């Protein structure tokens, strides 16, 4: 932080030392190193990351609409969402879902259901109980609101 790194740069560069990573009681069952870094960074520096672009950002809706107008191919985005399978790709797919949801696309229900199913897949990769259960519960809430699940306790 004192060197002027943005929070994402700090996250990329700070890792537990290998002798601590291998200890069973240091596994990320409750929180994560990334979350701790974000908390410390925010506590010391607040929300501002030093980039003037981030002082007054467009609303998510406006940003999404403008970006989609440049892309001009929502079908390609949907294809990209459906084809992502590893954790990094699934996180990307969730961001693409949000892009479409924020733009008030015509197929909101389909995108919401797709996002929920992606979150359930992401949950499988999580070791942090808080993160895993947040993905699962958020997905269940979406599916319940979209009337996709009835009494099915696992969401799908």
End-to-end CA span? 43 Å
Global shape: globular
Q: What count of helical segments does DSSP give?
A: 8
Low-confidence stretches: 150-156
Overall SS class:
mainly alpha
Structure description:
By secondary structure, the protein is mainly alpha-helical. The chain has eight helices and no strands. α4 crosses α6, α6 (87-102) runs antiparallel to α7 (108-125) and α7 packs antiparallel against α8. The N and C termini lie far apart (43 Å). Mean pLDDT is 85; it is low at 150-156.
Topology:
Blueprint: H1 7-13, H2 18-21, H3 33-45, H4 60-71, H5 74-83, H6 87-102, H7 108-125, H8 129-145
Helix pairs in contact: 4-6, 5-6, 6-7, 7-8
Give the gist of this structure:
With 156 residues, the chain is mainly α.
What are the salient characteristics of this protein?
156 residues, mainly alpha, globular, disordered C terminus
